[in-house]
Amino acid sequence: MTNEQAAxxxxxxxxxxxxxxxxxxxxxxGSHTALDAxxxxxxxxxxxxxxxxxxxxxxxxxRLVTGYLLPSSGTVAVGGFAPATHAAEVHARLGFVAETSRxxxxxxxxxxxxxxxxxxGLTKGALAAAVESAIERFHLGGxxxxxxxxxxxxxxQRVSLAxxxxxxxxxxxxxxxxxxxxxxxxxxxxGILAGLRGTRTLILCTHDLTEARDLxxxxxxxxxxxxxxxxxxxxxxxxxxPLSLFRGREASA
Amino acid sequence: xxPFWALVRKELAVLFGSPLAYVVLTLVALVSSLxxxxxxxxYNQILFVFxxxxxxxxxxxxxxxxxxxxxxxxxxxMENLGFVLILLVPMITMRIFAEERSRGTDELxxxxxxxxxxxxxxxxxxxxxxxxxxxxASFVYPAxxxxxxxxxxxxxxxxxxxxxxxxxxxxxxxxxCSAFSRTQLVAAVGALALGFVLWDFSWASGFLSEGxxxxxxxxxxxxxxxxxxxxxxxxxxxxxxxxxxxxxxxxARFSYDLRRVAG
Lengths: 253, 263
What we know:
- Chain A has helices spanning 3-7, 58-66, 87-93, 109-119, 124-137, 153-165, 183-196, 209-215, 233-236, 243-246, and strands spanning 18-29, 32-43, 47-52, 73-78, 94-97, 171-175, 201-206, 218-223, 226-232.
- Chain A has 253 residues and is an alpha/beta fold.
- In chain A, helix 4 packs across helix 5 and helix 4 (109-119) packs parallel to helix 6 (153-165).
- Chain B has 263 residues and is mainly alpha-helical.
- Chain B has one domain (3-262).
């Protein structure tokens, strides 16, 4: 850990430095190339958006960063560590919110958060404090003792977000956070994410342009596994027809 | 609380939070009791036939030695129970890994500090603990009843050990099937099919060579289990079940590596 990182507090990345770096990152599933030689850097403290239509390769990229999948070729590093070989170092720095609310419906909210914190190495006092803080931060007090399966999708997504922040990670990856939510729930979740900007590195994976404009400073657009565009959000999404990037327009930014 | 124990606690909460666990426990207790009482009923009928006045009554030596509780009730009950477990154990194991995959929670697990080996170990440990509870529920009543009929505690312990290891072997097979499946149904059918196929190969003795038969008997469940049912503990049979568990554990662990490569 550098002095800058140390000064930023436990688990948090100091501004400056590289949070995620992919070099010629390629992932194939049989004959299908889901991700084709992607190279990009996400700086520490940055709010970065990964955009693209369904099937563009966003989730595959996320899974390579978290170590859930191994690359076919190329490299990816989180805080300088390769997820394939240094999973513990990467996961200690990482909070991950999956595409839909991937939770345990038979567990109660507080019990699930205690499990999620314990699985990330928090013990006793620190665990209790982290769970209490997450319940307060994500407004889960009223539902803490309820079964997750009985919650609305909006509340389930809040639980999903809460578990990712328990161990105060330097990098949070959020995959399609508002997918399947009604407009009011979408607004709530966006509000929560907006409040998190600047506190740590955020990678937001979405196909919602409004979400990307509101929450990120820089974006990369994927099209059929290739990088179609990358740059500051207002520049990349500021044209007359930003959706054309989703259809495969050549990179301009 | 270490990540491993956090997962163990979560697995226990999920397992006992589901009605399926209670349904299976009840089913096992019910089925084992029914098997026991059915054999007891048949035993009583046999006893009655031998003891009827036309054959000399209870006071004579007309009741042969093989008509006793041990041979007519306890052995067949344990044999049948061993077979019934092939049907019941997959009901518990089918969801352990497959449900995580179908819900997508496996992605959450592997982004924590848990290693794939710890995930597999925790799931095996919790499943085995449940299976042990299941066996106790199925075994205690027949064992206590038969003990009155003259079986010693050591004999009963040997039988229980066999039943337990047999159930662990079936659970390990079921868990390996679950680890390679996305749907619980496929996991259950796979475990059932494997259990049935591995149970006994004596039916093949008529058309396979002696060497092949010897090999098949070496990997079959029943030839190893039946000695325990007779109250005999032989180390090589224990080693068979331990080996089966180790192989299945390694396969379940391998499924994680395979998923990272194959997607």
